[in-house]
Amino acid sequence: MAKNDPGPLTFSTFHNVINNELTSTAQSRHGINPPNKKPNPAVRVSTQEDLNRAVTAAQQAFLSWSKIPVGERRTAIYEFANGIEANKDMFAKMLTAEQGKPLSQATTEVEMAVHWARTIPTIEIPITVLEESDEHEIIERHTPMGVVGAIVPWNFPVLLAVGKIVPALYTGNTIILKPSPFTPYCDLKLAELAIQYFPTGVFQALSGDNDLGPIMTEHPGIDKISFTGSILTGKRVMASCAKTLKRLTLELGGNDPVIICDDVDIDAIIPTIGVLSFLCSSQICMMIKRLYVHEKIYDEFRDKLAKHVQDLKVGEGTRPDTFIGPVQNSMQFDKAKDLFDSLSSEGLKPVPTLVDNPPDNSRVVVEEPFAPILPLLKWSDENDVIARANDSQTGLGASVWSSDIDRANRMALQLQAGSVWVNSHFQVAPNVPFGGHKASSIGMEWGLTGLLGYCNTQSLWLKKK
């Protein structure tokens, strides 16, 4: 479908992509390889002028892309997915170099991105006949919005970028991608790769510093913002979008509670709980953040989990046995260190990166660490622990673990979160809506609900006579 072929994809130089051209800027910067703090390659620092050019190209491209039959858009996305898969190893290596996560976890993220790109376009967007008579037909349909600005975080830059790119393009929008300044490299390469598959102006990407996001959210030519990041920044994004009444989707932080009942098989679930608490150095919004363990099994569970966590390998992501890599950036490290230092001032006991039964009002329980720090809390009464689990400004994910499925399901139905699991956690799928309640989300991503978030709903009154 696209007219330009940039040739083989290489991961040594990185550019903005504007109107299917690799562009440069007057200023550049570079990210940091987290474990060794060495500079990664130079990337562009985009300006208002760069964004204006991209928006103009996206608006022009929208006029034709939105009219292309959905089947042709689907085919282009499938070819894009094949291109990501063909470059999977290079994407994974670059992801480890910029994000710090172990190579095995980086490879899994790229594979998930391919799966998302192939699955989301299989979801049919409905056209509903609301009323039909001899004189007229009333139809509800969903039309693309225009230019989407996608702002991607640093913890899952490949999957979360693809999770915005594909729904936006499949529904007929054009998109401008802004990677995190901490992890711009894979996202820029996604846009460079896309030159082979999409018409000019349909998919563009701009790297930049912290000034670029506010410029995007205030730009009058961008019709929707899809943002994934912190609650604090999400509030700023929402306020900025209000100036032009932009549509927006916000995927924000979580402080996921997990309730462990007294009838679980401790030895069987400890390895899973360990992974779901410390994957990606706990830098995932839907990791286990508050672990409520029944008092009857609390001591045994705590000691066995502590032993399991101590055996998890810590190191550089390129080492084959590494499970916990570095915290991604110095800003997040300082936040985590400040939270960890509060344990001493509040008289709390870490065992070793677990916190032993802190009060419910302690910082380590109330705040989202986004680092490998996990509070374990005792409970005895079912109604009480559900109330404690729900006592949070966030509501992203939650889970209940029990060998009594009826009990677990009964408790799960009372949890206030966008995703609730029984005997599992952090299960996600491209055909299942993802988002949160309370301060964790405005709108949803993925699934049919997520696709409709990139559309305007239209009531169409058609005359028959």
Automatic annotation (TrEMBL):
<dbReference type="InterPro" id="IPR016162">
    <property type="entry name" value="Ald_DH_N"/>
</dbReference>
<protein>
    <recommendedName>
        <fullName>aldehyde dehydrogenase (NAD(+))</fullName>
        <ecNumber>1.2.1.3</ecNumber>
    </recommendedName>
</protein>
<dbReference type="Pfam" id="PF00171">
    <property type="entry name" value="Aldedh"/>
</dbReference>
<feature type="domain" description="Aldehyde dehydrogenase">
    <location>
        <begin position="29"/>
        <end position="459"/>
    </location>
</feature>
<dbReference type="GO" id="GO:0004029">
    <property type="term" value="F:aldehyde dehydrogenase (NAD+) activity"/>
</dbReference>
<dbReference type="InterPro" id="IPR029510">
    <property type="entry name" value="Ald_DH_CS_GLU"/>
</dbReference>
<dbReference type="InterPro" id="IPR016163">
    <property type="entry name" value="Ald_DH_C"/>
</dbReference>
<comment type="similarity">
    <text>Belongs to the aldehyde dehydrogenase family.</text>
</comment>
<dbReference type="InterPro" id="IPR044086">
    <property type="entry name" value="LUC3-like"/>
</dbReference>
<feature type="region of interest" description="Disordered">
    <location>
        <begin position="24"/>
        <end position="44"/>
    </location>
</feature>
<dbReference type="InterPro" id="IPR016161">
    <property type="entry name" value="Ald_DH/histidinol_DH"/>
</dbReference>
<feature type="active site">
    <location>
        <position position="251"/>
    </location>
</feature>
<dbReference type="InterPro" id="IPR015590">
    <property type="entry name" value="Aldehyde_DH_dom"/>
</dbReference>
<keyword id="KW-0560">Oxidoreductase</keyword>
